[in-house]
């Protein structure tokens, strides 16, 4: 297993996934695995309230979560946490929720003025066209390294190669979206669980040979899952709901 995570500025290939850790690392690591970086909860430019239809629905092998990604907005997050971030023992990656190039540029400009940021993660709107998503990626180019989150079911070579050509420093192969019925209504949300790990392995195999760091960002529910992903070619792994210790 090559130590590609060193190329990302990490001392360990293990990280938390956005949305599973808050805005500061916890004092204890229940997984007993040294973390190489900390990823913040998703942050939007303006504050976001919880979805009125938020839900958690289980299925064999995992669950579907819909929350609306509530957060206090970029300026409020910086006001509360910027000084605390400067004292973190691991590199800090800030995860951004964006819908327009203006939002991308504005938030990255604010982060560039904050000395403690190691990298940025970009979460693309799932309903946007490929052209709009590429425009968002292109607008993230700046002083900070940035990684683009691509759902595992959309992680195809041509799409990843285009992202690389626009200046991205890597890709996080992230949790996909799905749909389930609840009380006669269709609910949508993001899927989590160990059942996603075979899809993650297939995506890493499919993308082998691309000259871009890939981070396995879903389906990691054991140390063996993470190690297998690293063996197949991931530069690092991100743990989501496994941190909840089911």
What does this structure look like?
- The chain is built from 6 helices and 12 strands.
- It has 246 residues and is of the alpha/beta class.
- The chain has one domain: TIM Barrel, CATH 3.20.20.
- The protein has an 8-stranded parallel β-barrel, surrounded by 4 helices. The chain has a 4-stranded antiparallel beta sheet with strand order 3-4-10-9, with no helix packed on it.
- Helix 5 packs parallel to helix 6 (223-232).
- The longest helix has 12 residues, at 74-85.
- The two termini are 28 Å apart.
- The mean pLDDT is 92.
Q: How would the blueprint of this fold be written?
A:
Blueprint: E1 14-16, E2 35-39, E3 55-59, E4 62-66, H1 74-85, E5 92-97, H2 101-112, E6 117-123, H3 130-138, E7 146-151, H4 157-165, E8 170-174, E9 177-182, E10 185-192, H5 197-206, E11 214-216, H6 223-232, E12 236-239
Parallel strand pairs: 1-2, 1-12, 2-5, 5-6, 6-7, 7-8, 8-11, 11-12
Antiparallel strand pairs: 3-4, 4-10, 9-10
Helix pairs in contact: 5-6
